[in-house]
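FORM 12-B: Structure-to-Sequence Request
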């Protein structure tokens, strides 16, 4: 699809039509920010329309066939409308800031863009769970009881500064489960999907999953800088090419808009060159290594048996394939194969080194 968009010069046509729309509205089409916002708004709406049949089929046919979907058609379109509204609210300040940075950045443009995106990501990590996520899901404090006590005890033993503990009504949309944490410094919060509690059956399995997730925090995986280095390098490449009129002309543009330059560069990196695929492959390698480290972390806390059971249980709930070919795993998967993680946990808990015996236990 991306290649077709480039080949048939859809973007230049859309850019021209968005300028005509700005003029039709009685505004100044020479204002790059207005022109860019109109262009991005039209592209976003077109993208939503283009993907709508596939999203509907995925949600109400494939997901429903396997018992995952709990979302009504009304809830589907309500979520879609809310997402579009949020995009229209967030886009103007972001586009304006990027345009100003590119125009004023000079020799340090790449660093300024990277710093802006870093700050933006921190702001979104903080505000999204508080301001945006509640628009789609209901967050309620985890009731007092054994599960809450065990989680608080785990956090206290790890010096995790837990301030709030929520349950999210994920079951209103899907049977898929999850758990995550957010916040900075001494204001951490944990969110658990109600489906995770239902599927794990007992408290120990839920706490084991959280022990694994807290391992990412304790081992500083959230501070991994590889992604930031990748972003900085991408902005550096854009800074080198942004003034190349031949680059814009080769894609059918007769102007050198800031956002258009970024889009062209992104398309060039992801479609024409293999760089993005190599970066994804390296990122998946790091991610899978982190997953094994957090499994080891949970094991040292005494949750190996419970984590092993929860892994198998969740994979069964989601009908996930237990095995993947090594090449597929390396390219597309950021988590280890179930059997590899399961085998490691079995050998930890039973102190056995015979992989054949462990495999026979797994098959049973």
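FORM 12-B RESPONSE
SEQUENCE OUT:
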């Amino acid at each position: 699809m991306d290649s077709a968009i480039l080949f048939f010069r859809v973007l230049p046509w859309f850019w021209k039509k968005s300028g005509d729309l700005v003029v039709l509205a009685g505004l100044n089409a020479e204002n790059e920010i207005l022109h860019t916002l109109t262009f991005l708004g039209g592209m976003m709406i077109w993208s939503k329309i283009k993907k709508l049949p596939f999203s509907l089929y995925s949600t109400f046919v494939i997901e429903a066939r396997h018992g995952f979907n709990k979302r009504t058609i009304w809830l589907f379109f309500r979520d879609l409308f809310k997402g579009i509204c949020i995009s229209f609210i967030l886009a103007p300040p972001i586009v304006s800031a990027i345009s100003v940075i590119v125009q004023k950045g000079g020799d340090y443009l790449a660093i300024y863009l990277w710093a802006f995106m870093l700050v933006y990501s921190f702001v979104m990590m903080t505000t999204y769970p508080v301001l945006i996520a509640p628009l789609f899901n209901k967050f309620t404090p985890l009731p007092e009881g054994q599960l809450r006590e065990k989680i608080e005890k785990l956090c206290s033993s790890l010096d995790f500064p837990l301030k709030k503990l929520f349950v999210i009504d994920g079951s209103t949309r899907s049977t898929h489960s999850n758990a995550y944490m957010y916040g900075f410094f001494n204001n951490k919060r944990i969110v658990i999907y109600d489906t995770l509690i239902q599927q794990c059956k007992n408290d120990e399995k839920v706490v084991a999953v959280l022990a694994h997730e807290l391992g990412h925090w304790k081992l500083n995986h959230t501070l991994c800088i590889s992604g930031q280095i990748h972003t900085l390098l991408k902005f550096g490449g854009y800074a080198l090419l942004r003034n190349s009129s031949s680059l814009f002309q080769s894609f059918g543009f007769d102007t050198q808009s800031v956002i258009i330059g970024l889009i062209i560069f992104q398309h060039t990196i992801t479609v024409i060159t293999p760089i993005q695929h190599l970066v994804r492959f390296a990122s998946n390698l790091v991610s899978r290594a982190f997953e094994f480290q957090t499994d080891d972390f949970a094991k040292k806390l005494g949750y190996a048996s419970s984590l092993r059971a929860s892994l198998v249980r969740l994979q069964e709930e989601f009908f996930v394939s237990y095995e993947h070919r090594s090449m597929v795993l390396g390219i597309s998967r950021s988590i280890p194969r179930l059997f590899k993680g399961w085998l490691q946990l079995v050998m930890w808990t039973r102190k056995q080194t015979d992989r054949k015996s462990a495999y026979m236990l797994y098959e049973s």
